[in-house]
Amino acid sequence: MAFSLTWLPEVLEDAGLKVAEQPGWRTRGRGEMGTVKGVICHHTSGSAHGIMPSLGVLTNGRSDLAGPLAQLGLGRDGTFFVIAAGRCNHAGTGMWQGLSTGNSNFIGIEAENTGGQDDPWPPVQLDAYRRGVAAILKKIAANPVMCCGHKEYALPHGRKDDPSLDMVDFRTQVASILGGTAPDPIVIPDRDADGRPTLRRGARGDLVKQIQTDLKVSTDGIFGAGTEAALRQFQREHGLVPDGIVGPRTWASLEASAGPAIVPLASGPRPATFSFPAEPGGSPLDQITQMAGASDLARFAWRDRGKAPAGYIKGMALVYGRVYSKFKAGDAAALDMGQKNTGDRGRDALAWYDDVFNAAGMDNRTGGEDTLRHLFVLLIGLGMRESSGKYCEGRDITANNVTADTAEAGLFQMSFNAKAASPFLPRIFAQYRANPSGFVDVFKEGVICSAASLENFGSGDGKEFQRLCKECPAFAAEFAALALRHIRTHWGPINRKQAQIRPECDALLSQVQAAIDASPALRSALAPANIA
Amino acid sequence: MTKRIIVLGLALGLGAGGTALGRDSSRLVCSGFAELDYNGSQEKMAISIDFLDRRAAGGVNREYVLSSIYQRKLFQGKMVSTSDVWGGKIALSDGSRSKLFVGVFELEKGQNDAYTMSLDGKVNRDPSGHATLITAKARLPCVDLSL
For an interface test with B, which of A489, A494, A498 has the most B Cβ atoms less than 10 Å from its Cβ? Predict the structure, then answer.
């Protein structure tokens, strides 16, 4: 039967920490814990070499003391090894804050360190130590004072000297983490020396497929629980920390075991198999709307917004298909959208979001269809933030912009004063004004428009711009996609990095690409002249 | 009257749709205590600032508007940002020569999208009494009122 501390891995992972669960940890312990009141910090006094050489002793105990000796081990690389979910023999006789039942009321963390001057604490390990303790204290709703060193707890005083840390300073750091004033941690590099991104559960694409091939598991391109379990086993067999994350060391081991070099992400994930052929008699565009409706993105709950209207996901998939087709045909505006990250953080949203894209494994260093697709991944997140995916959204009443040039309109809450950012923007406006075919019937699914939201302000081109943004969503999307490359400060959610980047979005748009590549008829059907 | 209220309620309900409304602007209310260095002694002053981040008139930059009601007067300041920093130099004035705050503000985004506004400059704790500006610093936790 499992003991009660089964929440430990989740709490640590939610704090952004690396976690390696040891086989059998859920049922390991000296019995059930009492109410958890705090944490006692230790160091192992083990070997000076290796990430966690004391793991075996902590798990199985010593000749003079039965194991397990702590619920958690902390490796020199900042990985938490989850050893036991029950009570452990780590505290001995002592007292802290009036509590003398250390094993029953305190979680024990044994950090790998000799305790001597010859073994300085690695910053990544120290940072993880503080964050792990803070996460546990937050979980049990305890103050930082409920974290103590073994040397502070043990009686008589002087009986123990671990950990070799200034515990007053340690608690101060823990308090700053709990108070939200500590800087964010950097645990694993975003990329290895060859530019390969660090991947973990939730990642998707061709690199995941290659990892799955090396691990001999199903190659669906989705880094899920099965892939993670196989990866942990691979890591154990190759002397790596079994954290289930493909970082620089694991990349190197996978490459060495697989033989051929793994292709960097710069070449882009290839789309998954296209599985929605057009039904006889149906529109070719049904292929795209059906795959959008069945996608993970259609079920995704956006932060503060919830699920997108069905029409938004389907409509944006169609717009991307149109722009991708234009890109393949050499359209200048589409090529401009797909240019490589310019590095101009003040103007180019892809440069401003570079850290977010890197974290998601999306590389924009090379111009092309991958960068174009990633731009639309950001655009779709922006639309959820700006309008909740409502094509007919009216102006931002909080901001009180009521002139033809400044009134916000539509999915991306743009205003006409953005038009000067690129010479292509007035051209897109003119093209759609002449032929306003913008998939509006698709975007309508799941959306209710109020009369107030349809009101436009001022007169002339600015008023026409507002109308077109609402009545022709494809125009709004193309205009916004291009403007994102030139005038990212136009959008508050971009500046604040509130627009989300979702791998589900990348996966859907990859499918759209595959469908278009396979079907010239679909490319033709997406062209503006062929839309009623 | 009752009929009007029902009609208005239905209209609002339909207008809201199924999900939260989207907005380009951001509105925060940041409140707390400023630490004043008053002739060598440390004193505190309660302060609350309403912050609005909206698109500036040209469409290129962001405009920040800070407002505070103090001694029954509205003190307000605005600036157009041309940098990556979410803040800058600002003066909160009631339209006359009276100023509540002159200095630099900055917003920081912490964990779980929690925002904090820091103030570093001078405040006037009695503008109606034409008191002098006093060196002050503050870190004000914010509530995000953006929909």
Answer: A489
List, in sequence order, the alpha helices (H) in A62-106.
Answer: 102-105
What is the full DSSP assignment across A484-497? HTT-GGG-HHHHTT
Cβ B22–A345 below 8 Å, yes or no?
Answer: no
Average pLDDT, chain B: 84
Distance between first and last Cα of chain A: 64
How far apart, in whole angstroms, are the C-alpha atoms of residue A181 and residue A270? 41
Does B2 map to a domain?
no
* Residue B72 belongs to some domain of the structure: yes
**Residues contacting A256, CB < 8 A, separation 6+:** none
Contact of B9 with chain A, judged by CB distance below 8 Å, is answered with no
Q: Output the CA–CA distances (angstroms, integers) from residue A289 to A327, A372, A382, A478, in the order listed.
A: 20, 20, 20, 18
Region at A268 (left for phi over 0; alpha for psi -120 to 50; beta for the rest): left
Mutation pick from A307, A388, A497 vs chain B, by most beta carbons of B within 10 Å, is A388
Indicate yes or no: CB of A388 within 8 angstroms of CB of B19: yes
Span B12-70, pLDDT tens digits:
333 333 444 558 999 999 999 999 988 778 889 999 999 999 999 889 999 999 999 99
Q: Are strands A65-66 and A301-302 parallel, antiparallel or unpaired?
A: unpaired
Full domain range(s) for residue B57? 24-144
pLDDT higher for A517 or A314?
A: A314
Counting one residue from chain A and one from chain B, the pairs whose CB atoms sit within 8 A come to 111
Contact at 8 Å (CB) between A439 and A308? no
The number of distinct structural domains making up chain B is: 1
Nearest to A421 by CA among A475, A496, A346, A319: A346
The answer to whether residue B12 is domain-embedded is: no
CB contact under 8 A, A450 and B109: no
Residue B5 lies in a domain: no
- Hey, are the CB atoms on A492 and B54 less than 8 Å from each other? yes
Q: Are A151 and A160 in contact (CB under 8 A)?
A: yes
Contact A142, A38 (CB under 8 A): yes
Q: Looking at residues A178-190, what average pLDDT do you find?
A: 73
ipTM confidence score? 0.76
The two three-digit tokens of residue A150, written as one number: 């073994």
Kindly list the distances between the CA atom of residue A53 and the CA atoms of A41, A58, A160, A495, in Å, as whole numbers in the listed order. 18, 10, 21, 46
CATH number of the domain within which B78 lies:
2.40.128
Residues 6+ apart with CB under 8 A from A76: A50, A51, A52, A112, A113, A122, A125
Per-residue pLDDT reduced to its tens digit, A297-313: 999 999 888 999 999 99
